[in-house]
Design goal:
238 residues, alpha+beta, 2 domains, five-stranded antiparallel β-sheet, 9 helices, 18% strand, globular
């Protein structure tokens, strides 16, 4: 076997084997209302009253689950949800901070948000979309966005990893695949593999393959096939 192909296969196996999919470790959702997830941490302040000047109870991180009990609109037209964080903690949070599969068009709202995001934020919000809206008609579009965002950031990650690599080491590619900058992507279920020809990382293409498999007649499938038929992925199949 061509040594470059062997190295690529070993690199793929090592990184994929090491993935710990944190999304399988689901949070226990709070009780008492419709389940929603925080998608915009810039607006995720939970307050004691439904107003932007209300006393801060807690600020929530992206991905946190809440239970929506009711809604109220303030004098400026800003909508707040009264949410449970746990059996003992609750408060008011701005509607735009969260999305719920039980609310119509929330998938469209999240798609708009992730389109206006960049790099890791785009990947993380795409992952939340895929987990929250498994039956959305927009799923193929989001999968394409996720894959493209991961591949776009792979060049930057490659440059950063190369700075920390030992070029005299026998297995230099392991420095790329163990680069700590990959960790947060890894936690989102996004995997990168090493290309020995270009001496850099690439996205592994999982989202594109899902599009081709599940949505073969969609416009996104046409684009996904183009990505998978590229020089790198074409060689990786050999």
């Amino acid at each position: 076997m061509n040594p470059h192909k062997l190295t690529l296969r070993i690199a793929c196996f090592c990184l994929i084997f090491s993935v710990t999919n944190t999304h399988a470790q689901k949070q226990k959702p709070p009780l008492g209302g419709r389940i929603a997830v925080v998608v915009d941490e810039r607006l995720s302040a939970v307050r004691a009253t439904p107003e932007l000047t209300g006393k801060l109870v807690r600020r929530l991180s992206r991905g946190r689950l809440v239970a929506i009990r009711t809604a109220k609109t303030d004098r400026d037209g800003v909508v707040f949800y009264f949410v449970n964080l746990s059996s003992r903690t609750h408060g008011w949070i701005q509607r735009e901070a969260v999305v719920s599969a039980q609310y119509r068009n929330d998938d469209e709202r999240l798609l708009t948000l992730l389109k206006n995001s960049t790099e890791f934020d785009r990947v993380a919000r795409a992952r939340i979309f895929l987990d929250t809206f498994p039956r959305s008609a927009l799923r193929a579009e989001v999968l394409l966005i996720l894959g493209d965002a991961a591949e776009q950031v792979s060049a930057k990650l490659s440059r950063e990893a190369e700075k920390r690599a030992d070029k005299d080491a026998q297995f230099e590619h392991t420095y790329f695949l163990n680069y700590s900058g990959l960790d947060r992507y890894n936690r989102q279920g996004v995997t990168f593999i090493f290309d020995p020809r270009e001496h850099r990382l690439h996205y592994d293409g999982a989202a594109w393959r899902e599009i081709v498999r599940r949505f073969p007649r969609s416009p996104e499938a046409v684009e996904a096939k183009k990505r998978l038929d590229s020089r790198f992925f074409g060689n990786a199949k050999d």
